[in-house]
Model the fold of this input.
Amino acid sequence: MRRHLAPLILLASIVVLSACSNANAPAIQVTEAWARAPGSAQAGEPAATPTAESMAHGMARPTGAAYMRIRNTTSAPDQLLLAQSDVAQSTEIHTVEVKNGVMAMRPVDRIEIPAKGEVVLKPGGFHVMLIGLTKDLKPGDRFSLTLHFEKTGNIEIQVEVRQP
Ligand SMILES: [Cu+2]
Done:
């Protein structure tokens, strides 16, 4: 009887161990993804209609911004490096800074998502800049955005257009 019990206990331990390691939980979880509907820009963020500045940069099309909550469930930091979407000719990762009392956007190389931590991309802070919109984004519309993380790789998310 005892001889048959040992493999059974071993099997039970393996089942418990694999449940604990939670191999199927996504390393990076992205929730609350939304984009500002064009025509509702805030200070330091792009106006939806082409401005003299955007025209000067050859950006005849309006720009948009996407926001989200990014959670890292692993015990090592990860980096958001790039984003890509069909709704924009190109994208950049931006932050907003106050310089001489004026809010201005600045591109950043990466956003670090701390181990077991989260970063919220929100108006007035980090955002994914959608440069040269190829579609007319209206409140209620959804589009897909691919985020590229250094460790986790690509994650495709759905972004909902909102009128903030
Ligand atoms: Cu921006």
